[in-house]
Amino acid sequence: MNNRYRGTCSVCSVSVEAGEGFYDGGYVFCSEPVWKQMNEKSGRTFYCLNEFNKRFGFSFASAAEVFAEEQKHEAEELATVREKVRLDLVNGGLVAAAEEARVRSLEAVIRKVVGADIALNEMTWEQITDVRNELTRRTDARLRRESLQTWKDEDKCPRCGGAGGSDKWNFTGWTCNRCGGTGKY
To answer: Where are the domains of the chain?
Structure first.
C-alpha cells in the first residue's frame, strides 16, 4: 500500500517522505516490503526490498519477483520430497503395505484404484499414494473389525470398556448410552 506518512524506513532507517515508499501493518518502508521465514521455529521477518536484496545478495526488482522465486523454490522442494516418497513406495514400501493390509493381489488393488494395469516403477506420485492410501484404509478397517470382534468375544461394551458408565459423562447422567449401563456388548 502506498505510503501517506513521512518517517523513516522501519528496516534500514532511510528517511521516507509522504507519498513515497510503502506503508504496511503500521510500518513505513522505503521500498516494497518483503518477508522472509528464516527457519521453521522463528516467525516471519520483514525487510524493505532494498535491504532484502543487499542482505541476501539478490537483485529483485519487486516483491512479486521475490514471491515467485520462493514459490518456485518451494515447488522444487515439494517435487524432491514427493519423488523420494514415490521411490520408497516403489522399492518395497507398497509391497509391505499390501502385506499389512493382507490383500490377495497388489495388482488387483492397483487396477481398482488407478483404473489400469501399470507397473510400480511407472506410477506417478499421485497414483502410488492413492494406492497406498487405499491399502492403509483396508488395514485400518481390518484392525477395527478385529478390535470389535475382541469386544464381542469378551462381551464388553466398546464405548465404556464394560464399566457401564464414566465420570466424564457425569453431566449427562454417567451411564453409557451404548450399553445402557450394563457394560455388556
So the answer is: 7-59, 74-154, 155-185
Q: What is the three-class DSSP state of 2?
A: strand
In contact, 69 and 39? CB cutoff 8 Å:
no
Residue 27 pairs with which residues in a beta bridge? 24
Output the nine-digit C-alpha cell for 6.
513521512
- 35 sits in which H/E element: strand 33-37
Residue where the block lists cell 516494497: 32
Residues 6+ apart with CB under 8 A from 63: 32, 33, 34, 49
Give the model confidence (pLDDT) of 164-178 as tens digits. 989 988 888 899 988
Decide if 183 contacts 159 (C-beta within 8 A).
no
pLDDT in tens, 54-106: 888 888 988 899 889 989 999 999 999 999 999 999 999 999 999 999 999 99
Element (H, E) at 47: strand 44-48
Angstrom distance (rounded) from CA 50 to CA 12: 9
